[in-house]
Amino acid sequence: MATGKIIKALSGFYYVLHEGTVYQCRGRGVFRKRKITPLVGDLVEFKAETVEEGYILAIEERQNELVRPPISNIDQALIVTSAVHPDFNSLLLDRFLVLVEAKRIEPLIVISKLDQVADEVLQEMENYKNLYEGIGYPVILSSVNDSQSIDQLQSHLAGRTTVIAGQSGVGKSSLLNSIDPRLAIDTDEISASLGRGKHTTRHVELYEIAGGLVADTPGFSSLEFGSLQLDQLSECFPEFVAVQDECKFRGCLHNKEPKCAVKAGVESGSIAQQRYEHYLQFVEEIYNRKPRY
């Protein structure tokens, strides 16, 4: 018996990576009876007579999992946003960050296409970089053929399992191709992470890139907050978490309550006004969400 990681699931087979070799395995019947589906990213115990004849015997506890794409044990999300075409959208970036934080996945922000912008936009992106780095998020400013940003990105990918998120056209596929030209991803066929467009990947697969594993699916296909509760939302804003113990009321929603440390931080400038406004928009969205039965 050995331990490995599922790197691909296709047509009832699970492909398990163990010490550099991939074993084709089936799941035990007991998984079906218990309605357990092995996921790409799962750490599993398996037994194999040959590389094509193996069985998964047990699945280790997952540190996290996503529904779309179906993948588990993710270390980080590479959130790609562009400075232009499409224009930088801080509200969408904050939405991605909340979704990632809610799953306890570390974000890595990449702002692409900086070679296509005027100096004032470049300065604006530098300001955003400073803002998000001040919160604690790593930010990489990227241009075409910029070896420095590629080196930075490679160092973040090494030894980790990464999923990619970002709207259509921000340059996710170009970024991966520049890291590892062997991928040769057709940039015209990669769709939005929102699930629209030509890209119709039917399975999730982890590729070995820059010493780590990267999911081939273009990130999240749903940007709704789903099951996220109001009292969980502020936990997805690290700068709120840092001061929330100073709020007068336990369970403060940082909205209409008096003597709120988060609102005081916004007034003093230690918490960005724009981030707080986005938080209030998300509060409203969750509050007005239709119940699911």
UniProtKB/TrEMBL annotation:
<keyword id="KW-0479">Metal-binding</keyword>
<feature type="domain" description="EngC GTPase">
    <location>
        <begin position="72"/>
        <end position="221"/>
    </location>
</feature>
<comment type="subunit">
    <text>Monomer. Associates with 30S ribosomal subunit, binds 16S rRNA.</text>
</comment>
<dbReference type="Pfam" id="PF03193">
    <property type="entry name" value="RsgA_GTPase"/>
</dbReference>
<feature type="binding site">
    <location>
        <position position="252"/>
    </location>
    <ligand>
        <name>Zn(2+)</name>
    </ligand>
</feature>
<keyword id="KW-0547">Nucleotide-binding</keyword>
<keyword id="KW-0699">rRNA-binding</keyword>
<dbReference type="InterPro" id="IPR027417">
    <property type="entry name" value="P-loop_NTPase"/>
</dbReference>
<feature type="domain" description="CP-type G">
    <location>
        <begin position="63"/>
        <end position="223"/>
    </location>
</feature>
<feature type="binding site">
    <location>
        <position position="260"/>
    </location>
    <ligand>
        <name>Zn(2+)</name>
    </ligand>
</feature>
<comment type="function">
    <text>One of several proteins that assist in the late maturation steps of the functional core of the 30S ribosomal subunit. Helps release RbfA from mature subunits. May play a role in the assembly of ribosomal proteins into the subunit. Circularly permuted GTPase that catalyzes slow GTP hydrolysis, GTPase activity is stimulated by the 30S ribosomal subunit.</text>
</comment>
<feature type="binding site">
    <location>
        <begin position="166"/>
        <end position="174"/>
    </location>
    <ligand>
        <name>GTP</name>
    </ligand>
</feature>
<protein>
    <recommendedName>
        <fullName>Small ribosomal subunit biogenesis GTPase RsgA</fullName>
        <ecNumber>3.6.1.-</ecNumber>
    </recommendedName>
</protein>
<keyword id="KW-0862">Zinc</keyword>
<dbReference type="InterPro" id="IPR031944">
    <property type="entry name" value="RsgA_N"/>
</dbReference>
<feature type="binding site">
    <location>
        <position position="254"/>
    </location>
    <ligand>
        <name>Zn(2+)</name>
    </ligand>
</feature>
<keyword id="KW-0342">GTP-binding</keyword>
<keyword id="KW-0963">Cytoplasm</keyword>
<feature type="binding site">
    <location>
        <position position="247"/>
    </location>
    <ligand>
        <name>Zn(2+)</name>
    </ligand>
</feature>
<dbReference type="InterPro" id="IPR010914">
    <property type="entry name" value="RsgA_GTPase_dom"/>
</dbReference>
<dbReference type="Pfam" id="PF16745">
    <property type="entry name" value="RsgA_N"/>
</dbReference>
<dbReference type="InterPro" id="IPR012340">
    <property type="entry name" value="NA-bd_OB-fold"/>
</dbReference>
<feature type="binding site">
    <location>
        <begin position="112"/>
        <end position="115"/>
    </location>
    <ligand>
        <name>GTP</name>
    </ligand>
</feature>
<keyword id="KW-0690">Ribosome biogenesis</keyword>
<keyword id="KW-0378">Hydrolase</keyword>
<dbReference type="InterPro" id="IPR004881">
    <property type="entry name" value="Ribosome_biogen_GTPase_RsgA"/>
</dbReference>
<dbReference type="InterPro" id="IPR030378">
    <property type="entry name" value="G_CP_dom"/>
</dbReference>
<keyword id="KW-0694">RNA-binding</keyword>
<comment type="similarity">
    <text>Belongs to the TRAFAC class YlqF/YawG GTPase family. RsgA subfamily.</text>
</comment>
